[in-house]
Amino acid sequence: DIRQMWGRLRLNKRDNILCRHLSPKDAQNRREISIQDNRRTMRIENLAKKRNLRPIVLDEMKQFVRDLMQSLCAEATCEQQVSTLLSIRNRLLEGGSAVQEFTDLGLIARLIQLFGTSVDYNRQILISSCLIAIAAGTSAQTHAVVEHGGVELFLQLLKSSNNTKSNQGLMGLGNITGCCPNCRDMVLESGAIELITRHADSTDVRLIQSTCWVVSNLHRKIPKPRFELVSPLLPAMIKIVHCADEDALIDACWAASYLADMRPQGLQAFIDAKLIPRFLDLLNHERLAIQTQALRTIGAIAVGDDKQTQELIDHGTIRCLIPLFDSKNGMVRKEACWTISNIVASGPLMIQRVIEDGPTIIPRIIDLYMTEVSPIIQKECMWVINNIFQDGTIPQRQYMLDQGSMQVLKH
Fold first, then answer.
1. Who contacts 394 (Cβ-Cβ below 8 Å, separation ≥6)?
2. pTM of this structure
3. Cα separation of 97 and 105, whole Å?
4. pLDDT at residue 18, rounded to an integer
């Protein structure tokens, strides 16, 4: 092609002119040095720009925070304080270093003081919103809210008959309980449980969502809370797992799974509360997050003792699990295999129930192992097969061979 030849000639000519007095290696080194010098210059220029601009931005923000704090601490009308609190809340919701600036300047103590002397509804809501935003920050900021009496303030809001105030109280306690086990236990021991339970059957969507979230947080964190601390929450849990709002239901399912993990007392309380049928129903839920969490909870029950596993199977769990092995979601298939592996680990009686109640389960698990791409799911399938061969009777082992498990062992 003439154009390509001419392009090569032009390129060679240009290289010869540029490198007439240099060897190819020296020319390449010069180009690399030039590129590095240009990059270094750009980096220095950008850094200089940042260094020139950043102090201005920080100083302006700090001055803005100081001005707001002066306005809040000065003698002012209720309307002026509401306007100042609104600006502070908006700044806190943006996050960043402003939250710490406000905290360092004594905002928390001032807010607690204002709340104690205020009867104005708007001012109380704004004060609690500011404290909620701070409690949602770092662990140190959350502890600062607690040390200044934040728990007592949120409990006072929770006692209100006004739904908005009650919701503010729940959100504040939710942020505090989510901080660490010590804060969680402090809320559990503060007398909040009775007030939280009161909102478990609320028709207000915001309240039921916040209630489910707080109940879930009260069961979270490691080490787990003592069972005697969370057991009074059981009446609330029985109600929230039947709520209609899906977002709230996700938190309710998490709370129930945390309770089921508190073996043996928490798991037995879960069974005694007759929650198993509800969670078997949720295995068919259209929303994946709810279905998955319900399945994890069922799997946690299967980890219990033989009596608890028997209780689970007697509710028809095996038949409910069958469709899940064909789920399009890999996590659902994995959790279904994990649940079956826990059931068959209980011995020959449970193995026989799996074979009789779900005649397609073992063949499906063997097929799943041979066709599944995910090694994590394959591992769970292998646990099912291993547990049956290890704990099953000779006829049960023969059944496994008849279903083609030798393919898995060879594989």
1. none
2. 0.81
3. 13
4. 35
